[in-house]
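S.,

Sequence below, as promised.
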Amino acid sequence: MPNIPDTMNPDVAHKLLKVGEAFRIPGPFFSYEEIKMGNVNHTYKVNYIRDDGSGMAKIKSYLVQRVNTYAFQRPLELMSNIDKVTEYIHANFPHVKCLHFHHTQERHNYLMDADGFWRLSNYVPSVTFNSCDDLEIVRNAGQAFGDFQMMLSKFDASSLYYTIEDFHNTRKRYAKLKKDMAADPCGRVSEVRAELDWLLSVEDEACGLTDMHEAGELPLRVTHNDTKINNVLFDEETLKPLVVIDLDTVMPGLVGHDFGDAIRFAANFVEEDSSEADKAGLNLNIYWAFAEGFLKETAPALTEAEAATLGNSCFTLACELATRFLDDYLTGDKYFKINSPQHNLVRTRCQIALAKDMQKKMTAMNAIVRDCWMRYRGK
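The prediction came back faster than expected:
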């Protein structure tokens, strides 16, 4: 065991060393640092000393994650999906940077032991953005997620597991909301009647994607399902996209799920838990920039029906999340972390305000998508 600096916890360092050994990482262990990224898994940057070939030492870094198996209760299926998707991209697009997860001697891309469920990937020097008003960066993020979709457009989505059942089944989200509204376990229905009435009034419009898929009108694709801009790594100097990360929710889905969720998150004038719901709304400039980048990559692979749903998919995802926030509020705030007693209600109102603004701008949203799809589908 190497000498551990006082700034490092020796128990953590020893554990990370053992994880590295299991994944056959060469070179002496040097140091680690915990990285505060995401709200689910524990992530560490682990550094090893390597010989650069000329007798000089250099540092080679990796990311070690302990997967939260409470949040992801099917970790083997999750890692199977990641393995299939990343191996496919490496084999078919060798020039493209893709996350590389190391394997154990048993050819597993994970390690299960008494301390948890672990995985190890290469560290990519980069910069990320939690939010951004720079249209070129937003366009590049759209292009990165679009490229991810395009590379997997011929991959058999049915070969992947559903690691979260009915994740974007909007009909079932609404059904649960109505069930909990009827039960009213916390006596809160009376104070949110206006929010409930509005969400129920747009149920059929919000459930359009689910209904079209169940009718066989939209194909199942490999989807990322967490298309926040901070899940794209950018080059530190050029700010060009390097790689899409956080593949934990990769599974079968609809292209509109990825497009709509990205817009819902990136193109709102305020953050999703802003208490100023009156200021929430769709930034059409951000919407246009993301759509431009996304469709530049995906248009050749999308059906006309898929392209036609992208605008409304944003409305769907905003309504779907509003039902989830409101349902959690009605049942005692058991799922989403809250910082105040009405946090989920604040979130609900913000998503409803965004969805209402999208309704007003839907003609423009559809026109932007149609223009981009027409320009890029034959590239």
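The chain has two domains: 10-122, 135-376.

Coffee later?
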